[in-house]
Amino acid sequence: MATRVFSFAVATASMATVALELVLTRLYSVTMYYHFAFLAISVALLGLAAAGTTISVLPRVFTAPRAAPLAAAFMLGFALSAVWALHAAISHPISLRDWSANLAGLAQIYVAAALPLLCSGFAISLAISHAGAAIGRIYMFDLVGAGVGCVLLVPAIGALGAPGAALMVAALGGGSALLFALAGRPRGGALRAAAGLAAVITVALVALGVTEGDARRFGLVRNPTKFLGSRPVLFERWNSFSQITVAPAGDPDHRWIFIDGDAATRVWSAEVAQRRQDAPRRIPEVRVAALVYALRAQGPAAIIGPGGGTDVISALRAGVRDVYGVEINPIIVEDVMRGALAQWSGELYGDPRVHVVADEGRSYLRRQGRRFSSIQATLVDTWAASSSGAFTLSENNLYTVEAFGEFFAALAPGGVLSMTRWYDPRSPAEFVRLLAIARAALERRGVAPGDVGRHVLVATDGELRTTLMVSPEPFSDQDLRAFATAAARDQIRVLVQPGLAPPPDPLLARVLTAPRLGDALAALPYDASPTTDDRPFFFYHLRLGDLGSAFHRNAVGQLNNVGVTLLVLLLALSLVATLALVLVPLAVFQRRELTGTGPRGRLLGAFACLGLGFILVEIGFMQQFVLFLGHPVYALAVVLATLLIASGLGAGLSRRVTAALGARRAQLAMTGALAAILALYGAGLGALFDALIGLPLPARVGIAAALVAAPGALMGTFVPAAVRAASALGPGMVAWGWGVNGATSVVGSVAAIMLSMNAGFSTALFVGVALYLAAGALLPRADDEPAAS
Questions:
Q1: Residues 709-743 pLDDT 10s
Q2: What is the pLDDT at residue 545?
Q3: What confidence category does residue 289 fall into, taking pLDDT thresholds of 50, 70 and 90?
Q4: Contact 71/122 with Cβ under 8 angstroms?
Q5: CA-CA distance, 739 to 583, in Å (whole number)?
Q6: Euclidean distance between CA atoms 410 and 372, whole angstroms
Q7: Of 533, 589, 615, 681, which is most buried with the most CB atoms under 10 A?
Q8: CB atoms within 10 A of CB 611
């Protein structure tokens, strides 16, 4: 067998597997909702674990001489079934409001996604199972390929769209099949035929992927139950974290920009933007969001998430001289507002008073020294999954105590922060939490609890959109008169204003005026505690003990908690599936491997710790680097890819380190070094980020990659060491170890995010580090390892 070609075949298979997982995440966010991102992740890990188990219990079928040809056949299956997974994803739109009608569609989506990931799982597991002494090299190529897949998918979706990228991922699978066939040295007719077929399929899929954007063989990806519905689409473009479409509205003076077919922002015509700036104010939402300019119109004004420019028009109408917009989606800024709709919108984003950049709001404000008279954010959330698997949602980082503190720091003296969000008195958790965040941020600045109310104003449009205005300094009497006058003029109802008795809204007044914020929130039937950067899940309102009730809360008002329902369901499904497909078959067919004395139990514990630990460290790192890099997609491309690639390189070097130091000393050295580095990061990473946040993006990317690479390389040495220890105990122990590692990875992919949601990302990271330390302690010592029998 051609070892070098075989290694590249493994890397390509791993690249295709990760890329398919991520592109399905992007498609599911459009055709379903961002919560379904977890489905692709769970299925991918389950496919790898189930394949490894099957190979181990059928050793006479999956022999070493058959590894290359069988892997080629499985990757051909991946290439073809990936096209089916794409078709199933766009052909079965799911509504969260009618679960019973969705079951058949969900079943087809699940099976269609599982098949290619199971095929690639077989190919990769075959390679690892028969790697022998080359386990470090093969595992290195596996992880490096996965990391490269993370990086390549980001530009691929932007260039080809998600359907085109999915076809190119299928082509990668065909290329892997070709490499596996060539690695088997195809002298016989069967392998030559397989190589030829793989080449033909690969070329055909590349041609389909490159031309899909124009041909639209798979149609426009949409869900008719979302806000976009069946409207005619005037523009469509993809990037790695959104599908942006433009469609006409009922009124001819504006159009809609849709993000993943649901979240929407208006674009006003040139006539409105240039001559009829009062026209948008017929919409109550616009009037309530613009209240801030009745208090602070001197500028400069910062608008986070300006979208199609409604808030920009409001600021210009009020006479603000300089308006700075920070829009996280570059398609909206460059391709729509400065491209397709530039002329139609009157070149709004080309106005010399308007300065709009594509960036993340907090990162932008931290990097520049300008101070603003107002900072405004109106309904900034996308309900869209980034290709990091929805573990990092960009909008959540705007609604934390630390974020409010940074916004306060970016305000000029007397400046006002304005946040407009939904407030339904029947389901008030979201706005109550927003108010709690404002109070907590003010108290951090030294405002006494009894004085918080003098810093806060709240008004609602009567249609659930409600604006919170908060200032680091108390509002003056002049501010209060201007606020009351503007509210009366614009038919806006005041909910919170200093001096009003009785308070118009007793619930909000109680949150503001209670002697202790925690006491006021503890009395509520939901979790409205202030979110932090460590636990930024603004839309998650269930207490840990109320998870069971999530299954009974799938009404519209509880849409944000549907993700929790899905997580619980996926955790249950993962447990059942890993038992049925991984642990039970091992217990039935490989039970004798666990008999006798020795370090077998410790070794399986080490494999379990490594499977769960990697997921936890990955999630913890990704969240920590989001603000430093300025975007969740950068966290994916840099952090996850670097972690995988560095772990692969560490795996490749592990045998040399072991040969140089000895097995036990190498194990202790790697464990101690990993613990020391991560402890240092825990103590100093925040301060380092604060000091370096002003550097250009390329410099920050390089620093982030270097910081992740060191612990990643050390983490990569553990799995080869565990596999070598398992091999010394007998070939069946490798199967058990791989099965246990896969099982904990499957369950851990869901359990890790649940831990983060309830305890915070730092807790997830610390638990992950502890698991790696436990794995190092559990790995058998060299003198514990008996000769294989």
A1: 999 898 888 888 888 788 777 666 776 777 788 77
A2: 66
A3: very high
A4: yes
A5: 7
A6: 6
A7: 615
A8: 27
**DSSP-assigned letter for residue 730:** -
Q: Which residues lie across from 256 on neighbouring strands?
A: 247, 266
SS3 of the chain: helix, strand, coil, percent, to 5: 65, 10, 25
CA nearest neighbour of 310 among 374, 266, 353, 258: 266
- What would the two tokens of residue 709 be? 């690479």
Closest CA to 567 of 728, 439, 750: 750
What is the model's pTM?
Answer: 0.85
One-letter amino acid at 677 equals: I
- Which contiguous run of DSSP H or E holds residue 327? strand 323-327
**Residues 720/738, Cβ–Cβ less than 8 Å:** no
Question: Which residue, 658, 659, 655, is CA-closest to 667?
Answer: 658
Residue 324 near residue 346, CB atoms below 8 Å: no
For 718, the token pair is 């553990």
pLDDT number for residue 455: 97
Q: What is the DSSP string of 600-634?
A: HHHHHHHHHHHHHHHHHHHHHHHHHHHHHHTSHHH
239 in Cβ contact with 330 (< 8 Å): yes
Q: Within a 10 A sphere around the Cβ of 62, how many other Cβ atoms?
A: 20
Q: How far is CA 675 from the centre of its chain?
A: 26
In terms of pLDDT, which residue wins out, 611 or 208? Answer: 208
Per-residue tokens: 764: 């997830």
Query: Which letter, b or e, does each residue of 131-152 get, where b requires 16 or more Cβ atoms within 10 Å of its Cβ?
Result: beebbbbbbbbbbbbbbbbbbb
Q: For residues 338 and 39, what is the distance between their CA atoms, to the nearest angstrom?
A: 36
- Sign for the pseudo-dihedral over CA of 773, 777, 782, 784: negative
Quickly tell me which residue has 């958790």 as its tokens: 429
Three-state DSSP class for 627? helix
Cα distance between residue 789 and residue 787, in whole Å: 6
Helix, coil or strand: residue 516: coil
Alpha helices in 400-516 (DSSP H): 401-409, 429-444, 477-489, 506-513
Q: How far lies 783's CA from each of 135, 399, 775, in Å?
A: 21, 54, 17
Cβ neighbour number for residue 369 with a 10 Å cutoff: 8
Q: Which helix (H) or strand (E) holds 470?
A: strand 465-470
Residues 6+ apart with CB under 8 A from 549: 542
Question: How far apart are alpha carbons 593 and 573 in whole angstroms?
Answer: 27
Asked if the peptide bond before residue 502 counts as cis, ω within 30 degrees of 0, the response is yes
Contact status, residue 147 vs residue 643, Cβ threshold 8 Å: yes
**Residue 302 pairs with which residues in a beta bridge?**
324, 375
Query: Residue 116 pLDDT more than 60?
Result: yes
Burial 11-46 (b: 16+ CB within 10 A, else e): bbbbbbbbbbbbbbbbbbbbbbbbbbbbbbbbbbbb
As a whole number of angstroms, the longest Cα–Cα distance in the chain is: 90
